[in-house]
Amino acid sequence: MKKITLGISLVLLAACSPKTTQENQESMNKIKLITLDPGHFHAALVQKSMYDDVDSTVHIYSPGGSDLDLHTTKINAYNSRAEDPTNWNTLIYKGEDFFQKMIEEKAGNVVMLAGNNAKKTEYILESIKNGFNVFADKPMVINSANYPALEEAFKLADEKNLLLYDIMTERSEITTVLQKELSRFPAVFGELEKGTLENPAVTKESVHHYFKYVSGSPLIRPSWFFDTKQQGEGIVDVTTHLVDLTFWECFPEKIINKSDVALVSAKRWPTVLSQADFEKVTGQSTFPEFLSENVKDNKLDVFANGEINYTINGHHAKASVIWNYQAPEGTGDTHYSIMRGTKANLIIKQGKEQNYKPTLYIEPLGDAHDEAIEIAIAELEKKYHGLGVQREGKAWVVVIPEEFNVGHEAHFAQVTRRYLDYLQNGNIPAWEVPNMLTKYWLTTSALDLAKKN
After folding, report:
1. Are the beta carbons of 347 and 178 closer than 8 angstroms?
2. Measured by CB atoms within 10 angstroms of the end CB, which terminus of the chain is less buried, N or C?
3. What is the pLDDT of residue 332?
4. Which of 25, 22, 31 has its CA nearest to residue 424?
5. Is residue 387 exposed (0-12), middle (13-18) or buried (19+ Cβ within 10 Å)?
């Protein structure tokens, strides 16, 4: 029997052309994505682009329902768009045992998570335990009770040589990138101020909106998004990005441990939504029962807003997030950021004066140092072709070519490519994992403090 089997195998092998064998090998070497219980539009945005080293077949494991329907609708729209269509092939498993089925079938090697955050930390840990790499949307954890599980997941990932990483899209926003770059020029920026609680050295403020358009269509959010026990409060959600940027910009390529950070104060407050607001953004005419404890006089309190004051290596920082229902017409989510240096402030504004587009300013302090600014911009122009500056009053506006203003949705492809590079080449920087752990320790500790207050 063994001789017959061997003979058949040799015949089949001979029948395969070198090209076919090469194609099969390339297919075997490709990264295979699994999307686990998609419930946030970020899950689809990861697939708005194709990636050379990622298999076009993506397995989805889900309990089914409207979350899955919204996700697959977006994927199908990307596949059928007129300009630069994707060609994802989606294979779906639906059932209450979807998570166990994913573990049993092992249809891929990277689990992508973006959805309900109530079980996200558990999904991360169990996926790592079962040999999957994990690419997770923020936040990885929404309360201090689950933080130890995240610590265990990172420890096991290291032992198993797996990559666990979160989706930090804001590092790809060009004004933030250039704010960081310019802070590395001592002749322009000087040194980062120590700051105070009242006047921090670095401030990051983010304003978001429940009703918005994504990929040209009104965004329908799941009702659980408004339950902070499932989505997480604002202080542990969007602020994850802001805290990440304070580490990444102020202390680039440096490990930030818990001992390097001190939590000073934290507070939280609700966004109040009417029944009509809720229906417009979810499509549901009544508040579901799981939200009842936060409904008063037929209005829903969502603790989506928060502020954290903390120090990093002795420098004061503030991160705050605000959620409104809907942005005024012609506007959208906004971002404000300032890094205060001893020679200049680097400020990002995104208000009416900036036509609601992120704009980076260099605000010199004391004596003008125009030459130093021009030298720095000329140096950066070698990397960011077409970059320039123009004076606006006492400040300078950094003029950024449109090709670098790719927008929030495109940032998902950029961070995904970064993850793929780390995964394939094993070159994740030494500071990434400890900084993720410190970041989530800070946000979950801040939530505990804010609730006490």
Report:
1. no
2. N
3. 73
4. 31
5. buried
* DSSP E strands, 106-232: 110-113, 133-136, 164-166, 202-211, 213-214, 217-218
User: Would you tell me how many other CB atoms lie within 10 Å of the CB of residue 48?
Assistant: 19
**For residue 6, how far is the Cα from the chain centroid?**
51
DSSP state of 192: B
Q: From CA 124, how far away is CA 146, in angstroms rounded?
A: 11
Q: 453 with 266: CB under 8 angstroms?
A: yes
Q: Domain 170-218+230-270+302-452 class?
A: alpha beta
Task: Find out whether the peptide bond into 186 is cis, omega within 30 degrees of 0.
Answer: no
**CATH fold match for the domains 31-166 and 170-218+230-270+302-452:** no
In the structure encoding, which two tokens stand for residue 153, read together? 């997941």
Residue 20 has pLDDT above 70, yes or no: no
303, 187 contact by CB (below 8 A): no
- In the block, residue with structure tokens 């933080």: 147
Q: What pLDDT, in 10s, does the model give residues 77-86?
A: 999 999 999 9
**Amino acid sitting at position 24:** N
356 or 20: which carries more pLDDT confidence? 356
Q: How far apart are CA 360 and CA 350, in angstroms?
A: 9
Q: Please report, as a single letter, which amino acid is at residue 418.
A: R
Helices (H), ranges, 165-252: 174-182, 186-189, 239-250
- Alpha carbon 102 to its chain centroid, in Å, reads 24
Instruction: Cite the beta strand spans of 159-260 per DSSP E.
Output: 164-166, 202-211, 213-214, 217-218
CATH architecture classification, 31-166: 3-Layer(aba) Sandwich (3.40)
- Helix or strand or coil: residue 302? strand
Sole residue written with tokens 């990277």: 110
Whether residue 286 has pLDDT greater than 90: yes
Domain ranges of the chain: 1-28, 31-166, 170-218+230-270+302-452
Q: What phi and psi values does residue 312 have, to the nearest 5 degrees?
A: -125, 120
Pull the structure tokens for residue 395: 């400040």
Is-contact 46 114, C-beta < 8 A? yes
Amino acid identity for residue 289 in this structure: E
Radius of gyration of the chain (CA): 24
Residue 216 has pLDDT above 80, yes or no: no
Residue 62's identity, in one-letter code, is S
Residue with tokens 């090709």: 403
In eight-state DSSP terms, residue 133 is E
Burial 82-97 (b: 16+ CB within 10 A, else e): eeeebebebeebeeee
